């Protein structure tokens, strides 16, 4: 049952020669079952042996991303990989077919890309420059045309002494005659269209009304589409000029010299501040025609250059868009995946310790893959007969190092395990709450969301997700939704089941089997048909009873309590299972037993009382029905005495409740006192926290051979001897560290004792406050803090006792959310379409049906669904898992090419 407890993990040492390190780690990455341990976690990456390879790989990936962006701009199809495991297998076969070593792809891709990338960047820069020039030429031409329209033909016949064309300039037609002539100056150019009005106001204020300005938008319909495809980066000036539409401005101001020179300077500064492009306006009409023709020729030349340059860029991009027949992906995608793979491989090689031409490292792997590791090394030794492939030795795990937690998961239980992992990773070999989340989480959701209609809709949608999962996985917008399809499927199924139990279909009931109550003639009363039992769920008559709300409130509240108490007792039981598995008999006796007894005799007894009261008919004698709430309150407040009617024999019930009171109070000191006292005794008697020499580098079994011994050639013998020497050096370093640590500890204790002798005569309040050493309550630490141990146990005891009450009350959210869902559905139906159905009013139905549909989808199927999901999440995490789950483990993160390729960023 690998999903009940994590897989058994083993700790291995790997010793591999430099010349075969790449091949060994390449196979380990394909195996996806090895987590390499970083030998020097504090060592900067730049100082590691393979840092240059990683940096080069990053540079290649960055260049490939640029090519991918350009392909999107030119709408060139880049065939992606859909199955990364298949890609790795096909790549291995393809490499063998062309008789090439797999480790040669790195240099081949890098050298080929460098040449092509340089050509591409050069062409992109040329295209950008041509685009900027074409844009400038077009704006210049637009300025000339617009200026001629505004100034009119008289500008070229009379020079600077000109009357403004009133029809275009905005002067009324009546003022055409008798216009005075002035010596005018002109400033023309283009400004961003969004800034045009602000620019106009600024000119007016700066000139104090002495400058006249005309604005006219440029029509960009003549700009070639090739201009837009020339943009490499939206942050470049060319792209900005295209994205921001421009407006032609013509500023006319009078006179020259003196104050007018000052005005000209102010206007030029304003133009510069608005990033305006200014142009010279020809004085002669012949020059205007020549300039226009010159601009047209230049624009045609730019068009030709843009087409040629864009064609060259497309030609370069199409080379990387070619489909590789053996791999069924583009050359760009193949190159990118291989570089990501290489980067991952060299990152893990950096975790090793280097000694001359030997690498030594450690890794975690599931115990069951030992045979696959053996087979992998054997295959490498056969294929590389002239080179040693190294050896792998199983070792004892280091002390104080957490073993990673690994579960075999599939597409079905992955989402439930992720729910658990979001709260915390399970400890190694701890009972996995993910196994029970498959059952408990959807059912708690179903209790709160119980409705045949709403649950059925959710179930059908989830079923369609499951059925079309393979197709939807390929669509980025639906990929995340597909991952949770089985969670939605079970949530919908449980909501549908609970809806059948409630006999609730969007606030309506189904009378399928016929009611067990019949109406009394000429009366509003109903009588029960003797011997009749409604087969499934609630009798539909309850929904039209006068006490409908009280009845369903009572049922759902009591059911929530019974379910919650049962789930918490089960959680405590799992705690005892964990204690026995880890042979923590002290916690089993001093924590599990009193906690189980306390929960069973208090809230378990309350649940039994609810079921006993439920099992009896109180018809006609409701005044004799006992109050369970009062009975539970009287246990601690009145010593277990019963007020009012007892549930069963009065004397027996009081005697039982007095016993419950005694044992429940006894469980509190049982949880509080014995465990810390016994731990202190064990510590000082030497039975616990005994110092043991580290066996991290010692073989687990001296008689056990390594998974694959090195070959017996003279070179291999020398490498093996060097590796053994290195291993012994590491063992010696470990022993020296341990010795230094002991010496420092002894020195610290001596200094502390001397300081205590100096200060023993001083008043207590003058003594310096000693910092408390943090730790897991003394477990596994050199310093044993009795005070911290006692405080921890006090907190644990108070938390459990008070938590038993608060957690039981927390399960009432099952009742509250279920009631709210049912009442909301009832209100929406009655207020939107219920009256129309009852009166037969078509108009109300036509108006109310869309409102009802939107309320059902928006409020119940979205908002209420999310609310029920979050409340179920809280009950799963806190009320259930909190009884046994430590959640302080570390996740097994294997060195896996498939995992890295699957999780690489998709938005490149």
Automatic annotation (TrEMBL):
Essential component of the vacuolar proton pump (V-ATPase), a multimeric enzyme that catalyzes the translocation of protons across the membranes. Required for assembly and activity of the V-ATPase. Pfam families: V_ATPase_I (PF01496). It is a multi-pass membrane protein. The keyword Phosphoprotein does not apply. InterPro entries: V-ATPase_116kDa_su (IPR002490), V-type_ATPase_116kDa_su_euka (IPR026028). Residues 693-705, 748-760, 770-782 have a biased composition (Basic and acidic residues). Belongs to the V-ATPase 116 kDa subunit family. Its main location: membrane. GO terms for cellular component: vacuolar proton-transporting V-type ATPase complex; vacuolar proton-transporting V-type ATPase, V0 domain. It comes from the Eukaryota. The chain crosses the membrane at residues 435-466, 478-502, 557-574, 586-612. It is found in: Membrane. Keywords: Hydrogen ion transport, Ion transport, Membrane, Transmembrane, Transmembrane helix, Transport. One of its GO terms (molecular function) is proton-transporting ATPase activity, rotational mechanism. GO terms for biological process: vacuolar acidification. This is V-type proton ATPase subunit a. Residues 689-715, 748-782 are annotated as: Disordered.
């Amino acid at each position: 049952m690998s999903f009940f407890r994590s897989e058994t993990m083993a700790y291995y040492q790997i010793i591999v020669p430099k010349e075969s390190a790449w091949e060994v780690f390449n196979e380990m990455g394909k195996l996806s079952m090895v987590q390499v341990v970083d030998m020097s976690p504090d060592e900067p990456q730049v100082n590691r042996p393979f840092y240059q390879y990683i940096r080069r790989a990053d540079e290649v990936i960055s260049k490939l991303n640029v090519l991918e962006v350009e392909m999107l701009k030119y709408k060139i199809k880049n065939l992606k990989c859909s199955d990364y495991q298949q890609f790795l297998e096909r790549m291995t076969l393809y490499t063998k077919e062309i008789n090439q070593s797999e480790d040669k792809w790195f240099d081949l891709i890098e050298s080929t890309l460098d040449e092509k990338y340089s050509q591409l960047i050069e062409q992109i820069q040329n295209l950008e420059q041509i685009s900027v020039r074409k844009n400038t030429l077009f704006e210049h031409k637009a300025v000339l045309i617009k200026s001629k329209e505004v100034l009119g033909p008289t500008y070229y016949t009379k020079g600077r002494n000109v009357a403004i064309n009133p029809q275009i300039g905005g002067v009324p037609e009546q003022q055409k005659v008798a216009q005075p002539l002035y010596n005018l100056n002109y400033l023309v150019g283009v400004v961003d269209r969004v800034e045009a009005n602000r620019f106009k106001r600024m000119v007016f204020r700066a000139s104090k009304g002495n400058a006249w300005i005309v604005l006219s938008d440029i029509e960009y319909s003549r700009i070639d589409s090739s201009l837009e495809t020339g943009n490499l980066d939206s942050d470049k000036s060319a792209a900005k000029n295209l994205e921001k539409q421009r407006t032609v401005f013509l500023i006319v101001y009078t006179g020259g010299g003196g104050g007018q020179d000052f005005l000209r300077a102010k206007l030029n500064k304003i133009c510069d501040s608005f990033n305006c492009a200014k142009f010279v306006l020809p004085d002669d009409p012949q020059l205007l025609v020549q300039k226009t023709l010159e601009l047209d020729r230049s624009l045609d030349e730019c068009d030709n250059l843009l087409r040629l340059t864009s064609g060259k860029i497309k030609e370069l991009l199409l080379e990387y868009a070619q489909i590789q027949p053996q791999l069924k992906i583009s050359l760009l995608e193949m190159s990118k995946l291989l570089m990501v793979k290489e980067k991952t491989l060299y990152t893990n090689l950096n975790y090793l310790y280097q000694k001359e031409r030997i690498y030594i490292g450690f890794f975690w792997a599931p115990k069951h893959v030992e045979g696959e590791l053996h087979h992998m090394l054997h295959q490498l030794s056969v294929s590389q007969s002239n080179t040693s492939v190294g050896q792998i030795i199983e070792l004892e795990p280091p002390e104080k190092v957490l073993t990673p937690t690994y579960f075999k998961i599939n597409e079905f239980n992955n989402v439930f395990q992720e729910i658990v992992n979001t709260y915390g990773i399970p400890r190694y070999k701890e009972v996995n709450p993910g196994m029970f989340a498959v059952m408990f989480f959807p059912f708690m959701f179903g209790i709160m969301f119980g409705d045949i209609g709403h649950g059925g809709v959710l179930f059908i949608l989830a079923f369609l997700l499951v059925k079309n999962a393979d197709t939807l996985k390929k669509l980025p917008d639906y990929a995340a939704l597909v991952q949770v399809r089985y969670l939605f499927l079970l949530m919908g199924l449980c909501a549908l089941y609970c809806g059948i139990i409630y006999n609730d279909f969007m606030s309506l009931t189904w009378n399928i089997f016929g009611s067990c109550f019949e109406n009394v003639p000429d009366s509003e009363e109903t009588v029960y048909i003797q011997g009749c039992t409604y087969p499934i769920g609630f009798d539909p008559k309850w929904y039209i009873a006068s006490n409908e709300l009280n009845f369903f409130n009572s049922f759902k509240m009591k059911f929530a309590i019974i379910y919650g108490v049962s789930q918490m007792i089960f959680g405590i039981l799992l705690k005892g299972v964990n204690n026995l598995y880890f042979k923590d008999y002290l916690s089993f006796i001093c924590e599990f037993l009193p906690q189980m007894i306390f929960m069973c005799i208090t809230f378990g007894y309350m649940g039994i009382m609810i079921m006993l009261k439920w099992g009896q008919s109180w018809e006609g004698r409701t005044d004799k029905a006992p109050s369970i709430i009062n009975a539970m309150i009287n246990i601690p407040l009145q010593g277990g005495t019963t007020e009012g009617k007892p549930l069963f024999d009065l004397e027996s019930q009081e005697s039982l409740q007095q016993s419950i009171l005694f044992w429940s109070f006894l469980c509190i000191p049982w949880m509080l006192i014995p465990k810390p006292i016994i731990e202190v005794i064990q510590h000082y008697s030497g039975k616990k926290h005994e110092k043991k020499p580290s066996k991290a580098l010692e073989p687990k079994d001296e008689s056990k051979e390594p998974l694959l011994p090195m070959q017996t050639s003279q070179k291999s013998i020398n490498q093996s001897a060097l590796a053994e020497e290195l291993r012994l050096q590491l063992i010696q370093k470990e022993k020296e560290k341990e010795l230094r640590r002991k010496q420092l500890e002894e020195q610290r204790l001596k200094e502390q004792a001397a300081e205590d002798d100096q200060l023993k005569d001083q008043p207590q309040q003058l003594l310096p406050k000693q910092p408390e050493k943090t730790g897991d309550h003394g477990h596994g630490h050199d310093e044993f803090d009795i005070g911290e141990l006692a405080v921890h146990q006090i907190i644990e005891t108070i938390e459990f006792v008070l938590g038993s009450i608060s957690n039981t009350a927390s399960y009432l959210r099952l009742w509250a959310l279920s009631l709210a869902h049912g009442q909301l559905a009832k209100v929406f139906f009655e207020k939107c379409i219920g009256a129309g159905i009852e009166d037969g009013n078509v108009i109300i139905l036509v108006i109310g049906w869309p409102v009802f549909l939107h309320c059902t989808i928006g409020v119940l199927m979205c908002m209420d669904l999310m609310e029920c999901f979050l409340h179920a999440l809280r009950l799963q995490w806190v009320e259930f898992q909190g009884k046994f789950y430590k959640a302080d483990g570390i996740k097994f993160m294997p060195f896996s090419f498939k995992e890295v390729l699957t999780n690489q960023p998709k938005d490149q």
